[in-house]
Amino acid sequence: MEHQALEDGIVFLTQGKREMTLSEAIGRIEIVTKDPQLTRKILEEAERRGAIERDGVGVKSSGSVSGDYRSKVKIRVGEFTCCRCGSSLSTGYFIILNDREWGPFGSTCVKKIMGF
Q1: Which of 29, 55, 103, 110 is geometrically suited to a Cys-Cys bond with 94, CB 3.0 to 4.6 A?
Q2: pLDDT, tens digit, 9 for 90 and up, residues 24-61
Q3: What is the largest CA-CA distance in the chain?
Q4: Angstrom distance (rounded) from CA 70 to CA 81
């Protein structure tokens, strides 16, 4: 389970915009885990693999902004609660990465997560 969370956390770090604050990077990792030790491990492993560069306050992803984020997002209408902020939703956005589905998220949160 921890190995999968590690891999998924690294994938989330490489999505969307290339430069982000450390807080934004941690926000992406928190989709996968709330464990501070695992969060630190994900950041360290991503840096070791060359997926990110850290400078203390910021993080630069080596991943590129890849096209339209909507190709990685499924939209469903229904009653949902955002996994990130807890807001009630009538439309849920689900992120598809590594053949897994994450969500639901609101429109603002999915854009923040994906870096757009």
Answers
A1: 103
A2: 999 999 999 999 999 999 999 999 999 999 987 899 98
A3: 42
A4: 20
